Amino acid sequence: MSPQRFKPSVTVAAIIEREGRYLLVEEETPEGLRLNNPAGHLEQGETPLQGAVREALEETAHRFRPEALLGLYLSRFRREASGEDVTYLRIAYCGGLERDGPVPGLALDQGIRRWLWASPEEIAQARDAGRLRSPLVWRCLEDHRAGRRLPLDLIQADDSLFQPELRP
Hints:
The chain is α+β, with helices and mostly antiparallel strands. Helix content is 20%, strand content 37%. It has a single domain, classed as Nucleoside Triphosphate Pyrophosphohydrolase. It has three helices and seven strands, in the order ββββαβββαα. Strands 1, 2, 3, 4, 5, 6 and 7 form a seven-stranded mixed β-sheet that branches. It is globular, with a radius of gyration of 17 Å. InterPro entries: NUDIX_hydrolase-like_dom_sf (IPR015797), NUDIX_hydrolase_dom (IPR000086), NudJ (IPR033713). Its EC number is 3.6.1.-. Belongs to the Nudix hydrolase family. NudJ subfamily. Pfam families: NUDIX.
């Protein structure tokens, strides 16, 4: 019998800083309200870059303009109540906004209570209080503040990604 193949859950994140503050979302989770970077699961048929732009728009109503790849991050999450055990691979991009303010009339994703701008000190307080969705929220902020920037084209997508049917 062959072992079950390990399949991490791929997520994308947008790290957006303006005047020393970071754009976050407050979202409902089984553990209560938590703060997160605009982030979510990569969808079939999109590149990680496209996914980060989409997630930022869906969760904050802001149009994200990626400027650099921030990094690739792994984190394991275990939910006590259900026994769920998931390893996440986060692909994080950093950049700015196409315009100042949200797109008028655009509703936020289900489960997102609000978006907010927070200082690193406020995010550290939320971390210390156990209010961050993942340790990767803080890690991405640290890497961004340290000046980590990688080229956007570091991740390449083959054309087969965009084909609805793969050829035999």
